[in-house]
Fold each of these.
Amino acid sequence: QAKQEGRSTFRFFTPALRTHSSRTLRLRNDLRLALERGQLALVYQPQVRLADGKMLGVEALLRWQHPELGPISPAEFIPIAETCGLILPIGDWVLRQGLQQLQRWDAAGLGALTVAVNLSAVQFRDLRLAERIGQLLHESGLPAQRLEIELTESCAMINPQGSINTLEGLRQLQIPIAIDDFGTGYSSLSYLKRFKVGRLKIDQSFVRDLHLDPDDRAIVRAIIGLADHLGMRTVAEGVETAEQLAWLREHGCDEAQGYFFSRPLSPEAMQAWALARAPQQPAV
Ligand code: C2E
Ligand code: MG
Ligand code: MG
Ligand code: MG
């Protein structure tokens, strides 16, 4: 009896079933068409400098509006895209779309914002990454400094020596780099130094309970101190309250991003937000 149950259980968890639920299979199938059918879109979240409240740029975040299943989180569909060869075309689309949006905002007089784009581990492994991004930048006519690449700390640590080489290639193109979700990815300090990135994004898990948890405060203080000593800027992710913001400003965090300022917004809503926030021109 037990043996039979054991066997049927074993049979149920065949590798194919274990790794691919029917929803995953469906999403994988539908994702192929999502790009060409215009179901993917970028939303944008402002990044604000704490010293003076100036909006410096935006992070582009990908959205998939599935015609039947509704909105699908990138946390769900990016891993799927990574396993079926779709992440490279999707990644290129995100970069091109983000840069085009920047040009439209330039024309609308928003000031020279930067756009930060998230990169998947698969894109990052691509030996032609720098070449691809360089080409997309060239097409856009925008200077490299207007783009920023976000790479998660765990991504950078999959193959640290490879990361150093790839990051060097991007640096030669003068493309700014940020380490995303910093503090969750076990990077050693010696690698962090050799990555030579411009910004560290403090993971939102440390920001969330800042006013409740002394350990989180200690960690955030340590990250800010480390960044200062290594000549990097810090960006706090997931800032939702005025208390969090005040603490971060007081402790020398350079920039912040989160619902306190704005949720990720459509291009039109982001433009309206930025124009409403821009300091009034002094009367002549
Ligand atoms: P991430 O890059 O760390 O992005 C931050 C996530 O936190 C976003 O979730 C954002 O909407 C959310 N967030 C921002 N402010 C707050 C806040 O104040 N409170 C809380 N609770 N959350 C906040 P989202 O848009 O669902 O994206 C999830 C992840 O998916 C991203 O994490 C990123 O790793 C990945 N992702 C998004 N777009 C892309 C993309 O174009 N390419 C790749 N490869 N990954 C992407
Ligand atoms: Mg990010
Ligand atoms: Mg993050
Ligand atoms: Mg600092």
Amino acid sequence: ESKRLKNSAHLFRDAMQENYLRNVNIEQALRGAIENHELHMVYQPQVSTDGSFYGVEALIRWTNPRLGSIPPDAFIPIAEESGQMPTLGRYIIETTFADIQQIQHSLGISFSTSINLSARQLLEPDFATYFINKMQQENIEGVWLTLEITESLLIEDTSSVLPLLHAIKNKGVQLSMDDFGTGYSSLSMLRMLPIDELKIDKSFIDAALTSKNAQQMAQSIVTIGKNLEMDVVAEGIETKEQLEMLTRFGCDRFQGYYFARPMDKDALIRYVKGTFFP
Ligand code: C2E
Ligand code: CA
Ligand code: CA
Ligand code: CA
């Protein structure tokens, strides 16, 4: 018995060590990722209730020759902890701006683009100035931009973040609360921040068809959003049944594999042309 325990302790330690080493590897490889052109952005369509194309969410992708493809969930936190988020964040914004200019030009339409912001980016004192300058340089109007933030922001000092958010919002940019319902203090956060859009977390959408409880949660989130005059977006829609349920609840927009996976800019151009303007 004690030998078994010892073995499992070893296994645990080995797993910890392996995980630690992997994180160190990721941290180091990430330092060269931009220069080595290992990163790119992909875009996942958002569809309105009437079935029309609304816009996209920009998501980052990283493939390293040695480590393979690393999901953003794995490397964004490491980028934050190792002080690489300012550089990575700028790469995300500048690449997305350049890509969407090209996509919109090619399609001959303007559409909304959502960019994920890490809480760390908002703590950079010159972030608002930087973002607004980039918008102007690239000639992108605020009405076509949404910034997605998460509740982790609340852990940080909101008093410094508020003026920054207002400065950006004054340029017409919308603010979206991502993964709504998964963190804590969601409601106080909604009261404090100038939010335009709620994104219902995928976990509620996943469970909504099988759990009465999750279904009621999803419905309540839509009601909260509507009462606060926000748009409500359901993400992670994978089935027709989910789409029908969330439509019934009153969601304004949908995103998920049921419609399309995230795709690179050329694939997005083909997809939008083929699906919405055939
Ligand atoms: P998120 O912001 O909640 O993004 C939605 C995630 O759900 C994306 O995963 C997307 O590919 C995935 N997804 C969308 N529809 C479906 C579906 O129908 N089924 C399933 N199973 N998944 C779906 P991804 O791209 O791996 O990103 C994971 C997380 O990493 C994001 O969650 C976000 O928190 C973070 N992230 C990704 N790109 C960026 C970025 O450019 N900046 C920042 N700060 N974070 C990012
Ligand atoms: Ca998001
Ligand atoms: Ca989300
Ligand atoms: Ca998420």
Amino acid sequence: MPEQRFPDEFVWGAATSAYQIEGATEEDGRGRSIWDTFAAVPGNVKNGDTGAVAADHYHRLGEDLDLMASLGLRGYRFSIAWPRVQPDGAGAVNQAGLDFYRRLVDGLRERGVHPMATLFHWDLPQALQEAGGWENRDTAERFADYAAIMFDALEVRDWLTINEPKTVVDCGYRWGIHAPGVQDEGRAFVALHHLLLAHGRASRVLHEAHPGRRIGPALNLHPTYAAEPFTGADAAVWHQDGLENRLYLDPIFTGAYPEDTLAWIAERSPMPDRILDGDLAVISEPIDVLGVQYYTPHFLDAEGNRVHKHPTAQLDWLEIYPRGLYDTLTRLKYDYPAVPIVITENGVPAPDEVGPDGGVADGERVSFLRDHLAAVHDALAEGVPVEGYYVWSLLDNFEWAEGYDARFGIVHVDYATQRRTPKSSALWYRDLISSGRLA
Ligand code: PNW
């Protein structure tokens, strides 16, 4: 195989999110989030796990920054816990919360690591949930206010608005397996519209207040395919593509919801009535960067049911298919206007893997990352403007409804001692970063 060299300026990064690693949920004036509430209800999260301690990152910031430097990371994507900064989601700012993220950004800069900040990675202030959460249009305004606070407080060039609106809509509101635990399609798509509105409002605020900085959404995209050719699955595949991908990409890039998907939604949700004049102009505020999160494709049988064609990971929703990342990236190039793309998440879970010597040999993760990066390289060769890649995740962490059993980190966390141990994938990644080429 010819050598697969990446551009010198390619940003090799790792990603995390606040609720999944910080812990310290009741310290220094942090308000309550919907994930604190959701995780406290027995049965919602495996083993009754919560983010109360997580990887204790809030108390181990210096150590974790040094860890990033030791791996040679060029980029770090983190999220800001809204309730740390605005405990009630509106009004008064909690200085201690702001200070934590200032220390983080300063620490990254001192170590030459490029920061990428996510404004919302699912930990909505509980007070806003009590006022209707994302079903309440006002939450988008509150989000724009919070975004303005963060834009002024942190010297960060690159911002992401909403992490995976699709997962909020599907897991949080259609299936009820994530906070806020709603199971109602009608309400789900109302929430969707307000999430996109929040994205657009915050993007406008940034453009007006800080020209030169960049912002975009972080979308999980799932290429959809017929599991077998000539089975008549094409209509189902297109419908699924609407729900998974076009429902998010089209309004942001083209200023219109996909008509077929909107018609389907209209049969089950009052969402179309909630679209006011001017909303789509806000939602389609030009983006400067697109965060792409890729984990898995969806193969459908003739009835439109999902089937697996390839091996799955520890979590069975994750069917391993690196070619899907190439297909996703090239599809963006051919179907949508060109913007710089950053892979803001890609990774794989595995059960605890500590060997007898205390080391962690996660060969399957190395293969997964290598194969997906080869797909990124192929997309670069095809002219897709991919600027960087952030592996999910830097650390083992609170994997939402799966709790601590599913470990996505390239660095192992022993939750009893909070000891960090780079896995073989972290050492492999460090070498890749220094050579710039896939061996
Ligand atoms: C993402 N799916 O969520 C999130 O952004 C992370 O916080 C999370 O830890 C990571 O992926 C791993 O799950 C997803 O069902 C959740 O396809 C579900 C899916 C995809 C991504």
